[in-house]
Specification:
61 residues; mainly alpha; 2 helices; flat
């Protein structure tokens, strides 16, 4: 019962994160990550990086 209530509370808390109003965005943003600083001098990003946390902030918030 406690797990169910916790799951419902988490879902409700995160519901606001699913859809954001992006009407004021000028263009879609695409990011490409590489990891070239290695002895093989090749892109090893997918081989070496397991998790990437990216936080974006603007000056107004």
């Amino acid at each position: 019962m406690l797990k169910t209530l916790s799951a419902i509370a988490a879902a409700l808390a995160l519901a606001g994160c699913i859809r954001d109003n992006r009407d004021d965005c000028l263009f879609p943003l695409r990011l490409h990550f590489t990891y070239l600083y290695n002895v093989e001098d090749t892109d090893l990003f997918s081989d070496e990086v397991e998790t990437l946390c990216l936080y974006l902030y603007d000056t107004e918030t």
